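Section 5.1 Outputs to date
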Amino acid sequence: LGASPDLLLSNVGFPHLEQGDLVQIFIPSAPTRRLTLEVNYPEKKGDRGTTNLQVSVLKSLAEMFDLKAFADVVVYGPIEPEDAAVTFVELHFKDQFISRGDMWLFTEAMMNLPVHRKKTF
Protein backbone atom coordinates (compact mmCIF):
# COMPACT_ATOMS: atom_id res chain seq x y z
CA LEU A 1 0.00 0.00 0.00
CA GLY A 2 2.57 2.89 -0.01
CA ALA A 3 1.72 4.20 -3.46
CA SER A 4 1.86 7.86 -4.39
CA PRO A 5 -1.21 9.88 -3.40
CA ASP A 6 -3.98 10.41 -5.96
CA LEU A 7 -4.30 14.11 -5.03
CA LEU A 8 -1.89 16.76 -3.77
CA LEU A 9 -3.10 20.23 -2.78
CA SER A 10 -1.37 23.45 -1.81
CA ASN A 11 -1.91 24.42 1.81
CA VAL A 12 -1.79 28.08 0.75
CA GLY A 13 -4.65 27.70 -1.73
CA PHE A 14 -6.79 25.52 0.53
CA PRO A 15 -6.16 26.51 4.16
CA HIS A 16 -9.61 25.26 5.28
CA LEU A 17 -8.80 21.66 4.30
CA GLU A 18 -6.97 19.20 6.51
CA GLN A 19 -4.88 16.19 5.57
CA GLY A 20 -7.29 13.28 5.00
CA ASP A 21 -10.38 15.38 4.22
CA LEU A 22 -12.47 14.31 1.23
CA VAL A 23 -13.00 16.78 -1.63
CA GLN A 24 -14.72 16.67 -5.00
CA ILE A 25 -12.91 17.93 -8.08
CA PHE A 26 -14.62 18.75 -11.36
CA ILE A 27 -14.30 20.98 -14.38
CA PRO A 28 -16.78 23.88 -14.51
CA SER A 29 -18.19 22.75 -17.88
CA ALA A 30 -19.11 19.29 -16.47
CA PRO A 31 -20.23 19.79 -12.85
CA THR A 32 -22.02 16.44 -12.64
CA ARG A 33 -18.85 14.45 -13.38
CA ARG A 34 -17.09 14.67 -10.02
CA LEU A 35 -13.96 12.97 -8.79
CA THR A 36 -13.87 12.41 -5.01
CA LEU A 37 -10.41 12.13 -3.48
CA GLU A 38 -8.63 12.35 -0.15
CA VAL A 39 -6.56 15.49 0.53
CA ASN A 40 -2.80 15.09 0.77
CA TYR A 41 -0.24 17.84 1.18
CA PRO A 42 3.28 17.64 -0.27
CA GLU A 43 5.89 16.40 2.17
CA LYS A 44 8.52 19.15 2.13
CA LYS A 45 10.95 20.28 4.73
CA GLY A 46 9.94 23.63 6.12
CA ASP A 47 6.67 25.41 5.35
CA ARG A 48 4.11 23.51 3.23
CA GLY A 49 3.12 26.80 1.60
CA THR A 50 6.39 27.40 -0.25
CA THR A 51 5.52 25.22 -3.23
CA ASN A 52 4.08 26.46 -6.55
CA LEU A 53 1.74 23.47 -6.62
CA GLN A 54 -2.00 24.22 -6.43
CA VAL A 55 -3.81 21.00 -7.43
CA SER A 56 -2.09 17.84 -8.65
CA VAL A 57 -4.10 14.76 -9.63
CA LEU A 58 -2.64 11.39 -10.60
CA LYS A 59 -2.26 11.29 -14.40
CA SER A 60 -4.41 8.18 -14.92
CA LEU A 61 -7.26 9.75 -12.92
CA ALA A 62 -6.94 13.07 -14.73
CA GLU A 63 -7.25 11.27 -18.08
CA MET A 64 -10.34 9.32 -16.94
CA PHE A 65 -12.08 12.54 -15.88
CA ASP A 66 -10.83 14.70 -18.79
CA LEU A 67 -8.85 16.98 -16.49
CA LYS A 68 -6.26 18.87 -18.54
CA ALA A 69 -2.94 20.17 -17.24
CA PHE A 70 -3.10 23.80 -16.06
CA ALA A 71 -6.87 23.98 -16.67
CA ASP A 72 -9.27 25.49 -14.15
CA VAL A 73 -11.04 23.06 -11.84
CA VAL A 74 -13.43 23.42 -8.93
CA VAL A 75 -12.35 21.91 -5.61
CA TYR A 76 -15.45 21.44 -3.43
CA GLY A 77 -15.17 20.35 0.14
CA PRO A 78 -14.63 19.08 2.63
CA ILE A 79 -17.42 16.57 2.20
CA GLU A 80 -18.63 13.96 4.65
CA PRO A 81 -17.31 10.42 4.09
CA GLU A 82 -20.89 9.12 4.12
CA ASP A 83 -21.62 11.25 1.03
CA ALA A 84 -18.90 9.47 -0.94
CA ALA A 85 -19.19 5.95 0.44
CA VAL A 86 -19.91 2.91 -1.70
CA THR A 87 -21.48 -0.27 -0.42
CA PHE A 88 -20.12 -2.65 -3.05
CA VAL A 89 -16.83 -2.92 -4.95
CA GLU A 90 -16.11 -5.73 -7.38
CA LEU A 91 -12.50 -6.81 -7.87
CA HIS A 92 -11.13 -9.08 -10.57
CA PHE A 93 -8.07 -11.26 -10.12
CA LYS A 94 -6.64 -13.00 -13.14
CA ASP A 95 -4.79 -16.31 -12.87
CA GLN A 96 -4.49 -16.11 -9.07
CA PHE A 97 -5.59 -18.46 -6.32
CA ILE A 98 -7.13 -16.52 -3.44
CA SER A 99 -8.23 -18.32 -0.31
CA ARG A 100 -11.07 -17.18 1.92
CA GLY A 101 -8.50 -16.02 4.44
CA ASP A 102 -6.77 -13.94 1.75
CA MET A 103 -10.11 -12.42 0.77
CA TRP A 104 -10.83 -11.51 4.39
CA LEU A 105 -7.38 -9.93 4.87
CA PHE A 106 -7.74 -7.98 1.62
CA THR A 107 -11.20 -6.76 2.66
CA GLU A 108 -9.86 -5.60 6.03
CA ALA A 109 -6.89 -3.83 4.39
CA MET A 110 -9.16 -1.96 1.94
CA MET A 111 -11.68 -0.67 4.51
CA ASN A 112 -11.93 3.14 4.47
CA LEU A 113 -9.50 3.50 1.57
CA PRO A 114 -10.40 5.60 -1.46
CA VAL A 115 -10.85 3.45 -4.57
CA HIS A 116 -11.44 4.17 -8.23
CA ARG A 117 -11.47 2.34 -11.53
CA LYS A 118 -8.07 0.86 -12.41
CA LYS A 119 -6.62 1.59 -8.96
CA THR A 120 -3.68 -0.66 -8.10
CA PHE A 121 -2.44 -1.52 -4.64
